[in-house]
Amino acid sequence: MSGKDAGMILAKKDRKSTAQLAYGLVAIILVAFIASIGITVNMASHIANRRAVLTEAKLLHTEINMLHKFGYSPPHLTPAKLTDISKRLDIFGLRIVPASTRWLKDASVALDAEIGQPRMKLIWKPASPRSEIISKIAPIVVGLGAAIFAALFFLLKRHVRGIRALQESERRNRFLATHDNLTRLPNREHLDMEIDRTLNDNDNGTIAVLCLDLDNFKQVNDTHGHHAGDELLKQLSARFRETMTGSGVIARVGGDEFASVLTVNCKAGAINLARQLVSDACFPVASEGQALQVGASVGITFATSYCSDRKQLMKQADSALYQSKHSGRGMVSVYGENPASVSSLPVLQEYHAA
Question: Which residues on neighbouring strands pair with residue 304, listed in sequence order?
Fold first, then answer.
């Protein structure tokens, strides 16, 4: 594994960890918010309950003191009298029981007993202000919850957008690392990997490596400007890509230099494909109302049992290209063979004559 691949894997893991951390924090914040609401309601209800019990106890003490003044004692507190007190004081479940009775959820107040009489106490169900508290704080809670949710949603949206932007940037960087920025063809690094893969995976067929150089490209740049040269390269690259579809890979390896690797059934197939590439290069390119025309020379070599090394094959193809250029432009040369035997010069002459 290369350092670049390792870096990409680590970057992907870092993004995944960051996303998991962000979602975990959001979940913790939401749980904490809901828990804080519950705790707040319980505490407020507890405090309000205590206040309600104290208030009700004071009312009952006042009522009992008044009854004592009129000669009432615990035995005189009949159910009817207790019901009347309950209605007047708005106290629910008021009843009299022995002082030893224990009611966990009921409030109570002791009654003074006469000598010889058992001690008694009044018990009642204290008012529960929970619903009133909830109704009062509900709008605040809903508002705060909506604000927190909106803020979290905004942050998550930004986080997701950032992750997508990073993924797109990574995809673009991966592409640019192995492709030419101008023509979008594979670059030399990509071609090297493709040649190695083809050499390793090929079980049958003939592997050919081509080197192609444009003729008179410098003249186009000098006469029409670099923008015209760039347009020429883009259009020719599109033609080359279409010609090579299904046959192999063609890459831009220099300013006006291209190289390709392909698998064919026989050497003639590679030579014919090279001639088609020369034909593609010779056909004029329209740019800003002008017809731009160049030519191309190609060198070919074939992998053999005694020569299947990428560097050696590229060196041989480059040597065949040099032979083509010095034997007459617009030619296809095979390494170790006479250029005239595979020349595509008639194609070039045909386009120049047109």
Answer: 307
Q: Outline where DSSP puts E strands in 107-189.
A: 107-111, 120-125
Tabulate helix, strand, coil % of the chain (nearest 5): 60, 20, 20
pTM: 0.57
Residues near 181 by Cβ (< 8 Å), separated by ≥ 6?
none
Report whether CATH 3.40.50.720 matches the domain 188-353.
no
Catalytic site residue 256? yes
Confidence of residue 17 (pLDDT cuts 50, 70, 90): low
Decide: 182 and 233 in contact? Cβ < 8 Å. yes
> How many residues can be counted in the chain?
354
Write out the two tokens for 346.
């008639």
> Where along the chain do its domains lie?
3-130, 188-353
Mean pLDDT of the chain: 77
**Of the listed ranges 117-126, 182-191, 207-216, the one predicted with least confidence:** 117-126
8 A C-beta contact, residue 59 and residue 91: yes
**Beta-strand relationship, 295-302 and 206-215:** antiparallel
Catalytic residue among 256, 280, 309, 318: 256
